[in-house]
Amino acid sequence: MSRTALLTGGAGYIGSHTAVVLLEAGWSVVIVDNLANSSPVAVERVAELAPGDLTFHQVDIRDTDALTKVFAERDIDAVVHFAGLKAVGESVEKPLEYHDINVGGTVSLLQAMRGAGVRDLVFSSSCTVYGDPSETPVTESARLGPTTNPYGRSKLYIEEMLRDLPVSEPGAWRIVNLRYFNPVGAHPSGRIGEDPDGIPNNLMPYVMQVAVGRLERIGVFGGDYDTADGTCIRDYIHVVDLAEGHLAALERLPTIDGCIAVNLGTGQGYSVLDVIRAASKAVGRELPYEIVDRRAGDITAVWSNPTHAREVLGWEATRGIEEMVADHWRWQSQNPNGYSS
Q1: Distance between CA 242 and CA 235 in Å, rounded?
Q2: How do 182-184 and 233-234 pair as beta strands?
Q3: Best CA proximity match to 178, nearest among 15, 2, 12, 1
Q4: Mean pLDDT of 34-62
Q5: Is 29 helix (H, G, I), strand (E, B) or coil?
Q6: Of 20, 68, 72, 88, which residue is least crowded by CB atoms under 10 Å?
Q7: Bridge partners of 28?
Q8: pTM for this structure?
Q9: Confidence (pLDDT) at 199
Q10: Alpha helices, DSSP H, located in 135-214
């Protein structure tokens, strides 16, 4: 018998890839998305890539009544919660919007879930909850916070909220907070990928928009960090590996007691210049860049210890940086203007 997962923000970058992986695994998928920073074309392409039981509702997760109607229409077994704003720099400029949508939207979702009797949840958290970690690689037992930007704080607030639920209803809630690192890449078909609204806030889409000619050169935020080449180091993970991590979490939810946290990363750190070099190789020419001022909210270096994910979820990342940039370039080159191409 097929199980049904509701994906908030399921038309977005990570949500759409997760929808494909779930459909391929035999799950039924209900996508809820307000399309504020995503496209209905992504949902159409998900259906094309993985035919199955897929439905879509254009709903803002802050609309509890609308969410309640969605839950009433289907027997939902579990929720994967992606919906929210995700740009570190933008969050510094727009903190109220981030707390309204990320934190307030999650409260609304949890109220709808509780009303529908659904207590199984996989939450799209972030390594930003660790703040500027005192040591790397980062394990799940590392100190949380202080976070360095409103985006990270919103994720940390949500995690705290989720940890409160099993205390209030012992034995009812089963929750996995997936703290992922830096998603990049695209589905190998090139049909779905990252399509940011406006100038990208994240490195890889910025690099690829330069490669395709939409932007003139890559702005590298800071060249004087305490790293080998002076640029920030991050743990980049292929979005399909990440999607498979969500499937693994859903499959393990029945064995979870309360609320747990799991890092999803590769355990390997790459600098900004490492990524630019790898992308240049994939594209076949040197991509121009310039060092600019540091960006508010950024930290020097962070990468994961992925041991816990192997032990708890039976999952590990298998795709390297070359595959990440090759797949991302395939998406961008086939869709130079994203879903509006």
Answers
A1: 12
A2: unpaired
A3: 15
A4: 97
A5: strand
A6: 72
A7: 4
A8: 0.97
A9: 86
A10: 150-168, 203-211
Separation of CA 181 from chain center:
8
Hey, which residues are catalytic here?
151
pLDDT at res. 296: 85
* Rounded Cα gap, residues 249 and 137, in angstroms: 22
Q: What angle do CA 291, 146, 218 make, to 5 degrees?
A: 15
Tell me, what's the pLDDT at 91?
Answer: 93
Tokens of 107: 């409260």
DSSP letters spanning 198-223 = SS-SSHHHHHHHHHTTSSSSEEEE-S
Burial (CB count within 10 angstroms: exposed 0-12, middle 13-18, buried 19+), residue 255: exposed
| 49, 36 Cβ separation under 8 angstroms | no
Asked whether the predicted pLDDT for residue 88 surpasses 90, the reply is no
- Tokens representing residue 167 in the block: 């205390």
Where are the strands (E) in the chain, listed by range? 4-8, 28-33, 54-58, 78-81, 120-126, 174-180, 182-184, 218-221, 233-234, 236-238, 258-264, 270-271, 289-292, 301-302
Q: Cα 227 to chain center, whole Å?
A: 26
Residue with tokens 């199980």: 3
CA distance 89 to 107: 24
**Residue 166: is the preceding peptide bond cis (ω within 30°)?**
no
Query: Are 281 and 214 contacting, i.e. CB atoms less than 8 angstroms apart?
Result: no
Q: Averaged over 265-269, what is the pLDDT?
A: 97
pLDDT, the chain, mean: 97
Neighbouring CB atoms inside 10 A of 228's CB total 10
Q: Is 33 helix (H, G, I), strand (E, B) or coil?
A: strand
Each residue's pLDDT tens digit, 106-127: 999 999 999 999 999 999 999 9
Domains along the chain?
4-181+238-265 (3.40.50.720)
